[in-house]
Amino acid sequence: MLRHAKALAAAPGAPDDWDHARPLADRGLMDAAAMGRLLRERGWRPEQALVSTAARARQTYAQLGLQPPDGSTAAAFHDHLYLAEPDSLLDALREAPADADSVLLVGHNPGLHELAYRLSGEADALQRGFPTCMLAIFAVEGCWSTLDARHARLLDVVAP
Question: What InterPro entries does the annotation carry (predicted)?
Answer without folding.
Answer: His_Pase_superF_clade-1, His_PPase_superfam
